[in-house]
Amino acid sequence: MEKTFTEEQRNFKELAIEFARRELNPGSRERERRGEFSEAGWQKCAAFGIPGITMPQEYGGLGLDTMTCIATMEGLGYACRDSGLIFSLNSHIWTCESPINKFGSESQKRKYLPGLISGSLKGGHAMTEPDAGSDAFSMRCRAEKKGSHYVLNGSKTFITNAPIADLLLVFAVTDKGKGFAGVSAFIVERGFPGFSTGSALEMMGLKTCPLGEVFLQDCEVPEENRLGQEGAGAAIFNSEMEWERSCLFAAHLGAMEKILESCIAYARERRQFGKAIGKNQSVSHKIADMKVRIELSRLMLHKVAGLKGAGKRAPLESAMAKLFISESYVQIATDALQIHGAYGYSAEYEFERNLRDAIAGKIYSGTSEIQRNIIATFLGL
Ligand SMILES: Cc1cc2nc3c(=O)[nH]c(=O)nc-3n(C[C@H](O)[C@H](O)[C@H](O)COP(=O)(O)OP(=O)(O)OC[C@H]3O[C@@H](n4cnc5c(N)ncnc54)[C@H](O)[C@@H]3O)c2cc1C
Predict the structure, then answer these.
(1) What confidence category does residue 346 fall into, taking pLDDT thresholds of 50, 70 and 90?
(2) Same CATH topology for 7-122 and 124-231?
C-alpha cells in the first residue's frame, strides 16, 4: 500500500476497496451490458460519504483533506467494477459540488451543498457544444440579462449525468466582445422553465454513466443562480479542470494497480511451451513497464493533490498528470489484454472494459492533444 499516505488515509483506501466489493460490484456486469445507471449504488456511495469527503462539515461533509479523497478514489478505482458509477460521482463532485463550494455565495452553498453531499441531488457541468469541444470558449450558448433573470439559449452535448441531473453548472456567453472574460457560469435546476435534456447517448465505455444533451430554450435562470461574478466562467472552469485532472484520475491509478496484480499472477500461472508465460521477456517487460508507469503516475498525481490541497494552483502539473495517467491507463489496459490472450479479449474478464473506459480518459477533461498544448504553452512555445 502507498507509503505517502498516512495510516488514516490507507484505512480509507482499504475501506473503499471493501465497500466497492461488497456493495457496488454485485450485478455490475449485467448493468454494464444494459447500460444501466445504479441509483442504489449512488445512494450507497452517498451514505458511505464519498460526495462529501472534502466538503465542509457545516453542510454535511466530512471536512477531510485532499489526500484522503485521493486514497478513497484509488480504492474505488482498484476494486469497483461499476466504473461508470465512479465516473458519474467524480463528475458530480468536481464539476458541480466543488465549484459551488469554492465560488458560491453563502445562500447558494446552503441551498445546494447539503443535497449534493447527501446524494439527494445529482449534478454535473455543461460546457461542450456540438460545434465547440476543445475550443470550448467559442460556444454559442448565450445568457441575456432581463430584469432579475438571465435568459439562456443554446444546446450542450456529451454532458455527464445530464439525463439524471437535478442541476447543472451551465456555461454561457454574457458578453460576446470579451472572449474568455465574457463567459459566465449558472446553476441551472432541471425544473427551470426552458431547460430539458435528451435521452442518454450510447458510448463505447463507461456505459453505466448516463451522458447526454442539454437544451436551453429561453431558459429562465434567476440572477442569484449566477455562480461568481459575470465573466468569471473561465476561472471557474479552469479551477474545476485542475481538480478533476487530479482527483478523478486517482481512480485510474487504482484501476492500473489492480491490472498489474492480475497480470503478474497470470504471467506466473499461465504455462505455454512448458513454462510460465512470464518467463518470456516480451511478456515480463510489458509488466515491468506497467510498474514504471504506475509509480510515475502516483508521483505526479500525489504532487498535484498536494498542491491543490495546499490551496495552490497547479495548471501545468495537473495537465502533465492527466496526460500521463490517461495515456498510461490505455497502454496498461492494452498490454494486459494482450498478456491474457483470448481470455483478455473475452468479456468474461475485465480487460476489454478497462480498455474501453480508459480510452475516454484521453478525451474528457481536455484531450491529450490539448494537454500537450497547455504544457507547450508553459514552455513558451
Ligand atoms: C466520457 C465523456 C464525458 C464527457 N463529459 C462532459 C461533461 O460532463 N461536460 C462537458 O461539457 N463535456 C463533456 N465531455 C466532452 C469533452 O469535454 C469533449 O469531448 C472534449 O473537450 C473534446 O471535444 P470534442 O469531442 O468536440 O473534440 P474536438 O475538439 O472536435 O477535437 C477533435 C480532435 O481534434 C483535436 N484537436 C482539436 N483542437 C486541437 C488543437 N488546437 N491542437 C491539437 N489538436 C486539436 C482533439 O484533440 C481531438 O483529437 C465529455 C466527453 C466524454 C468522452
Answers:
(1) very high
(2) no
Mutate to test the pocket of ligand 1, among 363, 365, 371, 372 (most ligand atoms within 8 A of CB): 363
- Identify the CATH number of the domain defined by range 124-231: 2.40.110.10
CA of 363 to the centre of ligand 1 (A): 5
- Which residues are CB-neighbours of 244 under 8 A, at least 6 positions away? 90, 91, 94, 95, 365
The CATH number assigned to the domain with range 7-122 reads 1.10.540.10
pLDDT average, residue stretch 159-185: 97
Place of cell 496498461: 332
User: What is the pTM assigned to this prediction?
Assistant: 0.97
Is the CA virtual torsion 31, 32, 35, 39 positive or negative? positive
Report the SS3 class of residue 85.
Answer: helix
Q: What is the pLDDT of residues 104-133, one digit of tens each?
A: 999 999 999 999 999 999 999 999 999 999
